[in-house]
Automatic annotation (TrEMBL):
Binding-site residues, substrate: W203, D370, D371, R457, K490, W491, D492, N493, N494, C532, D554
Organism: Cutaneotrichosporon cavernicola
Reaction equation(s) it catalyzes: Hydrolysis of terminal, non-reducing alpha-D-galactose residues in alpha-D-galactosides, including galactose oligosaccharides, galactomannans and galactolipids
Record-linked InterPro entries: Aldolase_TIM, Alpga-gal_N_sf, Alpha-glycosidase_related, GH, Glyco_hydro_36, Glyco_hydro_36_C, Glyco_hydro_36_N, Glyco_hydro_b
Top-rank taxon: Eukaryota
Domain Glycosyl hydrolase family 36 N-terminal: 45-289
Entry keyword annotation includes Zinc-finger: no
Catalytic residues identified in the record: D492 (nucleophile), D554 (proton donor)
Keywords for this protein: Glycosidase, Hydrolase
Enzyme Commission (EC) number: 3.2.1.22
Protein's UniProt keywords contain Disulfide bond: no
CDD domains, alphabetized: GH36 (cd14791)
Official protein name in the record: Alpha-galactosidase
Length: 736
């Protein structure tokens, strides 16, 4: 429940919740370790004052220095909503073609409201929280000439040093306008030496961390795939050139959206830096008729003065507690086995049942049937046919899907009180031309006039901006899920978007997708949903709002996974990562790594499992499965709820991650030696996040926090590649 505390316009000084307002014209959003402040200037513009370590609300200027230049005063205003055509020559956040045909807008302040809690963004994913978690400042602006109103919402989460921002443009004028650009968040930084850090990659090598200097001019990255993409993630950190993993200012901007986006960072000639993050302007051109409104997706901004590690932990805590609405978010996820790499398309009900029995005998709790189970006229026996026809294939399931699910879920899991659970794979946004759905509705596919419909993996993309397509998916997938006792769904998406009928369809598609997912997750709230897009192609906060986890990469090689999982953790909590043990030689890289190493790497993900044919393992490996499952269940609570300290990155050859419960009482350390080095010692492993004066037990030995953090743990490794350790850390009582 949210409550309006104060309406705008009143000339009073107000301090409510985490928001202080001075004389209706200066605003400060106050968190435990940061504040965000701006004011209204004499022209009615919203001018940014501060974002960072807590500081005075009023701008702290010493002297009246005046910098001269050709366009002085017009080029460097730090506006909260930079519009275009006046007072500024930098990239604007918004650019709107008005009814008069020009793109000049002049949004002036009209009032504000403060409320406890946070309003929902209708139709869009967003962070959430109760009256004690978050407070919201709503500021309204108006462009008199066009009749456009902008309603800016800033929600501050004090205990996470986070501000979530979105805004709504309402056309109160009499003519249609076209929104050409609407970045959700503008970050203003003072002149200085800044770097940007972001995640770039490709299929099977997602989330490589890139760090580069912000130079004079514009620099950035984007997705034009229609989805958030493997290529670039909708996240950017801006840090001082001296910021490290453990110290220095770090700003993280995370865009809560799953479609095309753009990050534009501009260091102007004055050396001031502006970063805009939001919808990709090339996929927008949104027409707004009189009376209509347009709401931007939300962007979350976090700040830490404890480097990239502190920034990630702020974001992780916020996302663990205030993003994913699934009932599984804080719950232990069952150890699963996914059939894909073990069987690909080669299965039928009897084969699946045999594998399910094997899983139950070895202590696996959830059996997931991946791609290939559907299609009647066009059976999905490979990836050329069947997508769109969500009916179990009668040749594979002569007694129906329910019969298999009933038999599998009657199996007792060895060493546990549980019965085996059953999950399945879907890819609902897609259609193969070889399908009954395409034969009936070729017009339901995204296409641009008579242009050829580009096929990728022999599939086309359904136009989810259309209501009838959304309803078809809701019905088709809903019927399958209602037909049997399904506990888990993997929602895949294996191609990018090409021929868009119009730029605006890109965003309309996302709104349609969110409606479909919202409807299905509300109807089946007990199902554990996992996102996937050929691996991590849609690992974004938008989908993590509905689903608690996402498949991190199609690359299941343990060595590559260390890079991918450490990279992903820059912006996403490990609790949201799916990570599995797969066969060796690995199917993507052909690398052979020991089972223990593969297991420990996969334990870094909140959803741990297997992706192989258990029967292909030798007797010695099979005997280890029970212990691996038991260890993963011991590690899981720390990964799900703990704060992550990236003690050393994979680049060091000795990566290590420490997960400590937020109260600092217990944790687990995952440490790795990637390659053995002849006659070289590994550096001591400095722990972090401990109390210097407290005593801790690690690996049955007692240390002080100071020893662990200042002298470090001496890790000794043998002369062989791919070694790993799992060490539990326990704080001992103070009098011990
Ligand atoms: C891509 C996914 O990332 C894989 O895990 C698997 O589900 C295949 N699609 C199935 O087609």
């Amino acid at each position: 429940m949210t409550k309006i505390l104060q309406n705008g316009g009143a000339k009073v000084t107000e301090v409510k919740a985490a928001i202080s307002v001075l004389g209706s014209r200066a605003f400060s959003l106050n968190a435990w370790g940061m504040n965000y402040a701006f004011h209204v200037d004499a022209n009615g513009d919203l001018i940014h004052d501060h974002f960072g370590t807590p500081a005075a609300v009023q701008p702290t200027e010493v002297g009246n220095g005046h910098i001269s230049g050709w366009a002085t005063g017009m080029t460097d205003e730090k506006r909260e909503l930079p519009d275009s055509g006046r007072g500024d020559f930098r990239l604007p956040a918004i650019h709107i073609r008005t009814g008069a045909g020009h793109t000049v807008t002049d949004f002036k302040y009209t009032g504000y409201q403060v409320m406890r809690g946070k309003p929902e963004l209708e139709g869009l994913p967003s962070t959430f929280g109760g009256d004690r978690d978050v407070s919201t400042l709503i500021v309204t602006l108006e462009d008199e000439e066009s009749g456009l109103e902008a309603t800016l919402r800033y929600s501050v989460f004090p205990s996470h040093n986070a501000v979530a921002k979105s805004y709504t443009i309402t056309n109160k004028g009499s003519e249609e306008v076209e929104i050409k650009r609407a970045a959700s968040f503008t970050l203003n930084l003072d002149a200085g030496e800044w770097d940007m850090v972001y995640l770039a990659g490709d299929w099977a090598r997602e989330t490589n961390q890139v760090r580069r200097r912000i130079d004079v001019g514009t620099q950035g990255f984007q997705s034009l795939c229609g989805y958030s993409s493997h290529f670039f993630n909708p996240f950017v950190a801006l840090v001082s050139s001296e910021t490290s993993e453990t110290s220095g200012p770090a700003y993280g901007l995370s865009f809560v959206y799953s479609g095309s986006f753009a990050v534009e960072v501009e260091r102007f000639v004055t050396d001031r830096v502006r970063a805009n993050i939001g919808l990709n302007p090339l996929h927008l051109d949104w027409k707004l008729a009189p009376g209509e409104s347009f709401t931007t997706p939300e962007c979350v901004a976090v700040f830490s003065d404890q480097g990239l590690g502190g920034m990630s932990r702020n974001l992780h805590r916020l996302y663990r507690n205030h993003l994913s609405r699934s009932e599984w978010t804080h719950r232990h996820r069952p150890v699963l086995l996914n059939s894909w790499e073990g069987m690909y398309f080669d299965f039928d009900a009897e084969k699946l049942y045999t594998k399910a029995k094997d899983c139950a005998e070895l202590g696996v709790k959830l059996y997931v049937m991946d791609d290939g189970w559907f299609g009647v006229k066009h059976p999905r026996t490979d990836d050329h046919a069947g997508l769109g026809d969500w009916v179990p294939n009668p040749d594979r399931f002569p007694n129906g899907l329910k019969d298999l699910v009933d038999r599998a879920t009657a199996l007792q899991v060895s060493g546990s009180k549980d019965k085996l659970k059953f999950g399945l794979w879907v890819e609902p946004e897609m259609v193969n031309p070889q399908s009954e759905l395409y034969e009936a509705h070729p017009d339901w596919v995204l296409h641009a006039g008579k242009h050829k419909r580009t096929e990728q993996r022999s599939q086309l993309v359904l136009d989810l901006s259309r209501r009838e397509v959304q309803d078809y998916i809701i019905d088709a997938i809903g019927s399958v899920l209602a037909s049997a006792d399904v506990s888990y769904v993997k929602w895949d998406n294996n191609r990018a978007i090409h021929e868009l009928p119009s730029p605006a369809t890109a965003h309309a598609y996302m709104l349609g997708l969110y409606r479909v997912i919202d409807s299905l997750t509300c109807r089946f709230p007990h199902i554990l949903w996992e996102g996937c897009a050929s691996g991590g192609g849609r690992f974004d906060p938008g989908l993590l709002h509905y689903w608690p986890q996402s498949w991190t990469s199609d690359n299941t090689d343990a060595l590559d996974r260390l890079h991918i999982q450490f990279g992903t953790s820059l912006a996403y909590p490990p609790s949201s990562m799916g990570a599995h043990i797969s066969a060796v030689p690995n199917h993507q890289t052909h690398r052979v790594t020991p089972l223990e190493f593969r297991a420990h790497v996969a334990m870094m993900g909140g959803s741990f499992g297997f992706e192989l044919d258990l029967q292909s393992m030798n007797d010695d490996e099979r005997r280890q499965i029970h212990n691996i499952v038991a260890l993963s269940e011991k590690v899981s609570p720390y990964v799900l709820k703990g704060d992550l300290y990236r003690l050393a990155s994979p680049e060091s050859n000795y990566p290590a991650a420490l997960f400590m419960l937020p109260d600092g009482s217990e944790g687990v350390l995952l440490a790795f030696c990637m390659q053995s080095r002849i006659h070289k010692f590994s550096p001591p492993l400095m722990l972090a996040g401990l109390n210097l004066n407290a005593a801790y037990e690690v690996d049955c030995k007692t240390y002080t926090g100071s020893e662990l953090m200042r002298s470090g743990l001496k890790m000794s490794w043998d002369s062989r590649d791919y070694q790993s350790r799992v060490l539990f850390v326990k704080r001992l009582p103070d009098n011990c």
